[in-house]
Design a protein that fits this description.
By secondary structure, the protein is an alpha/beta fold. Helices cover about 35% and strands about 10% of the residues. The protein has helices spanning about 5-15, 25-30, 50, 55-60, 60-80, 85-95, 110, 175-190, 205-215, 240-255, and strands spanning about 20-25, 95-100, 120, 130, 165, 190-195, 220, 235. Helix 1 (about 5-15) crosses helix 10 (about 240-255), helix 6 (about 85-95) runs parallel beside helix 10 and helix 8 runs parallel beside helix 9.
Length: about 260
């Protein structure tokens, strides 16, 4: 990554009034949470993540799919936010208005101090009844899952006794309307959008940076690999989120560990 690119991006970020930070699976990768494009291991080895994350897969084999989400939730609980997550929270603290819009179903942004990330694809921590949609609390404390994973039948809803399902958006399902509306409004009104760790391939989420770009916002992309968003990004910072984000915040505002100056 050229230093001049970071400096250029930092100058844009430092001047922006309304900032959207749009994140995908690559944001969580350095915390040890695998991306959807990584090969699965253990019990899940024979499957592709895209084949497990569907309503059809859950209907066909609820214990397989529920077990996979239990295993993922356990992995997320063991994971810690990295320097890039902290840098995102630092941007929120410094920019006049900033919001995180994430496709991730983990809670690493929250745990790094981001105020209220918009979860476009739901959350691992919000299961609900598959029939009556009653929310079901996740028990506190990590249920330890074996490293290789295991099949686990989903619990039953206390109200209607249908299967409880993960509170995530599966392929073929609609995104939660309030989250999508907030994301679309923020994208349409921001002057800078920072896209981090997303392949930009999965719609409608991938529309968010496209909308911002179309309406004239500056787009900065952080990703070690090229993506379809290269074409709309004003600056492409090629590298991993945990390195590039702290460097960007440092270049925009100085020491990211210091609280912002008031006044
Ligand atoms: N830092 C930044 N980016 C990274 C890193 C890293 N350390 N490691 C990987 N990446 C990039 C990859 O190059 C890739 O472009 O993160 C991206 C991950 O892409 P996907 O796995 O497709 O994840 P995402 O874009 O979030 O997918 C969108 O589709 O897979 C489903 O529902 C799932 O929310 C997800 C959605």
């Amino acid at each position: 990554m050229a230093k001049s690119d970071t400096a250029e991006a930092a100058a844009m970020l430092g001047q922006a009034r309304r900032v959207v930070i749009f994140t995908g699976a690559g944001m969580s990768a350095e915390s040890g949470v695998p991306t959807f494009r990584d090969a699965l291991t253990g019990l899940w080895q024979r499957y592709d993540a895209h084949a497990l994350a569907t309503p059809e897969a859950f209907r066909a084999d609820p214990a397989l799919v529920w077990g996979w989400y239990e295993w993922r939730r356990c992995a997320v609980r063991r994971a810690q936010p990295h320097e890039g997550h902290l840098a995102v929270a630092a941007i929120e603290a410094r920019a006049p208005h900033a919001v995180v819009i994430t496709q991730n179903v983990d809670d690493l942004h929250e745990r790094a101090g981001s105020a209220a990330p918009v979860h476009l694809h739901g959350s691992l921590f919000a299961p609900r009844c598959s029939a009556c949609a009653q929310p079901v609390p996740v028990p506190d404390g990590a249920a330890e899952e074996p490293d290789e994973g295991r099949r686990t039948p989903p619990p039953r809803c206390a109200y209607c006794s249908a299967s409880v399902r993960p509170g995530v958006v599966w392929f073929g399902e609609a995104l939660p309307q309030p989250a999508l509306e907030t994301a679309a409004e923020e994208a349409a009104s921001c002057d800078l959008l920072l896209t981090v760790g997303t392949s930009g391939l999965v719609y409608p989420a991938a529309e968010i940076p496209q909308v911002a770009a179309r309406l004239g916002a500056t787009v900065i992309q952080i990703n070690p690999r090229p993506t379809p968003l290269d074409a709309v990004a004003d600056v492409n910072l090629r590298g991993p989120a945990a390195q590039v984000l702290p460097a960007l915040v440092q270049a925009a505002w100085g020491d990211a560990d210091q609280p912002p100056q008031s006044g």
